Amino acid sequence: MLKILVFGSGSIGTFLGTKLYAAGHNVLLYGRRKLESLKEQILINGDVYQLPPKCYQLQSDDYNAILVTTKLYNVQSALEQIKKYQFNPQIIAFIQNGIVDKDFYGEFKNHPGFITVSVFNGYNLTGNKIIVTESNLGLQVEDNLAGEKICELLISAGIRCYTTANISQMRAQKLIFNAAVNALSAIEKKTYGELIIDKKIKEVVDGITQESWTVLKDDYHLPSLAFLQEEIYQLITKVKNHYSSMYQDFISGRNTEIEFLNGFIINLGREKGIKTPYNQQVYLKIVEQQGKAK
Ligand SMILES: NC(=O)c1ccc[n+]([C@@H]2O[C@H](COP(=O)([O-])OP(=O)(O)OC[C@H]3O[C@@H](n4cnc5c(N)ncnc54)[C@H](OP(=O)(O)O)[C@@H]3O)[C@@H](O)[C@H]2O)c1
Fold it and tell me: Which architecture, in CATH terms, is 3-164?
């Protein structure tokens, strides 16, 4: 049994923490608004689970594992707090979308238990329910010691997690998927499946995929565009009923990860002299709306 802190208990964090708690681990959920609204029992895909203990203020303690499940724009403040409380777990896993340089994690990048996790499932927390839409890729981590440890922990709770030798390529492919559908799901208020039924929106999905592939293909040794497009359509079909977490943030007037997704592609494209009009189109719509909401 491990002692586990979930730092930033929202959709994914609450899911992971609850499953680990049900598997007998000693879990503490740390969060803010989303956590506050949760009752003692939670439904995950219709099954009733006991919610682990919650907290809204950290205290120094010895944790075997810390799962950081905040959005990317909150990772820096999470790192500061983890440093402040001098936590030194055996595993420190960062579970976010997007590609960020390891320097983003400051000194934690050298921690022996440091690992980043790429998520290919969908998690939607509303009210006291989490709807999980699984894909066959599940959760993916780098094939190293820390990767093996986090896989072992998650698998102990029945969560599918795999190590992969091609993690940076997978992460780039996931970034393209997220760039192609997350912002559009928010703008159009549609599920992933609904996006590609509409001919005009599908054209934007394909345009973003093509541009993003052109920007990333050499640095991340990506497969052919046709192969990637096929994979993206397969994943869309698997999670077709899912709205992006950007949609959830967007409708509730929260910040979004647009800078780390389409913003990342646009900036890299600019550096390489590659035009990215489809990415810009969705990027601007999200940023404009966020500006109005502020
Ligand atoms: N949800 C999905 O289907 C999915 C799928 C693949 C990847 N991802 C990625 O996984 C990451 C997490 O996504 P998510 O959907 O679980 O996000 P989320 O539901 O927004 O959960 C993050 C939680 O962290 C809390 N938080 C942030 N900073 C905090 C701090 N300093 N102290 C305490 N709590 C803090 C937030 O509080 P508030 O409630 O106050 O905002 C929020 O509840 C994102 O990078 C996302 O892109 C998500």
Answer: 3-Layer(aba) Sandwich (3.40)
